[in-house]
Amino acid sequence: xxxxxxxxxxxxxxxxxxxxxxxxxxLLVDAFTRVLAAAGLDRDDVDGLGxxxxxxxxxxxxxxxxxxxxxxxxxxxxxxxxxxxxxxxQHAVRAVExxxxxxxxxxxxxxxxxxxxxxxxxxxxxxxxxxxxxxPTGGPNALFALLTQRHMQxxxxxxxxxxxLVVAQRRNAARNPGAVYREPLxxxxxxxxxxxxxxxxxxxxxxxxxxxxxLVVGAAEDGVALRALQALHNVxxxxxxxxxxxxxxxxxxxxxxxxAGPAEMDVISVYDDYPAMVLVQLAxxxxxxxxxxxxxxxxxxxxxxxxxxxxxxxxxxxxxxxHGLVEVVTQLLGRAGExxxxxxxxxxxxxxxxxxxxxxxxxxxxxxxxx
Amino acid sequence: MxxxxxxxxxxxxxxxxxxxxxxxxxxxxxxxxxxxxxxxERVSGHVAEVRxxxxxxxxxxxxxxxxxxxxxxxxxxxxxxxTA
Lengths: 371, 84
Prior knowledge:
heterodimer, A: alpha/beta, 5-stranded mixed beta sheet, 4-stranded mixed beta sheet, B: mainly beta, two-stranded antiparallel ribbon, 0% helix
């Protein structure tokens, strides 16, 4: 088996208000150029391409290959939003190991302004079109407001408890030049923010941005190795309370395959569309069995969402599903600059999302190791 | 005034919104049952989750604060109005 390594990661800078000449294609192309430069590779070295985007339509991965002048032997689209980054990685690593391709570039990105975001959330899937858009729920905010109420009740949490996580992630963002919100946020600022959908206020919701992320998976000995990857989607058919993802069912297998436990992770990226979902996934993975204790004793001390996460760096559509992965890889490659976690050797990243009716249906996680 | 809720013709369990195959038994034999009302479980602004007597939770537009509501599709909008 040919060893497969993640040899580079890159992000096309996120922006809150993209200019007219920025398109989803230009963002993905920018991320492609950046990640090849980071890897020290040429366009002609690339023989595999995987793409995730909500807004590239009607173009697909092959259109992008054409525009880039890439001749892929391995080609893949994955539209599964917050899970797509890890999905693409899953397939790319297997493809390199099997010899289907030697140098695969994975891209995820979207240009989202006010009108394209509205279009996206109203037509997210057929169930949304038919049963939610007319209410209106205003996208996922109202649904996760209901979920957060359940989470608060289940664990006896108050808004200020979630605020500790949001404030800590903003502190991380201050050291990430790519984050759209870097100015300090106090707990008082968090609590005083305008309401979005009770109990969610402004800083509980990701800022919608435009941007793109990229990874290179290559046949190489050096780089970041995939120790373990597990996924379980549609675990309960949307018939539960949303306070448990598929990760709960696969975390034992994840840590077994990784040959390491949750406490050994030097850097952690958890998909953070809403603070409650960070705590749900951490609990599923065995990283925070008691959310209240985690918020009061560990937040600020563990290297969690070191980029600032989507809550501070921004959510660029499907790029949100690659953002945390790019951050863990960047840390493990020792290229995280001012926010570098010294000696980071092992990391975990999760993907979550695709709200079918009441909450996200997709869940996956990967344990990565510096070689 | 009611909300159509799919019920599996094989195992008799209800689901909402419609699926292709029954999530419980895998059958593809649906009938619809008209559900007149339910109990509000959670509210955020005008959005609420209502528990129907058949089991499933339905996300609706809540017209006014209430615990017991009538359910209907009002011009295609899943809507809950307080019981009189």
